[in-house]
Fold:
Amino acid sequence: MTDPWTQSLLLDSVPTIDISGTLYREFLLDLNQNNSAEGRYLSLDALEIYQADAGNLTNHPTGLGTMIYEIGLDVTGASNWILLDATLNSGSGSGDMFAYIPNALFGDKDFVYLYSMFGVHNAANATFEEWAVRKVTSTSIVPVPAPGAILLGMLGLSVAGIKLRKYA
Structure:
């Protein structure tokens, strides 16, 4: 029987993005969590990425090819996980998180599988979570500085300008 939740992606369909001179593969997560004070949080408790030569694999964890990336247990056996906040974006369908996986981890296999587990530390309370990739085009993915970085830079220049005017 084929697992309806397991789908492969061609590696070429996963966009790359240059962040400070390092190439990453970009994956997009849509949480579909309730947008309320009590229900906005969801834990991402496992994220594993596999590569394989075949696009029809379905058996996690042993049958998805070679694992190239994971969050989960660290070397001490402690659990690593990410607390996600659904109120930081405009709702279902808009995307709540980008996962940037170093491109150097990907080998020469054609297919990519992403496994994730949610809700161990903070439970899901709405519909299912959805992973996606943006369409790859020659100009589709351009890194933009974070708004906070721009604001801090402008604030720093303003303070420097005020100080210089006092001494002039």
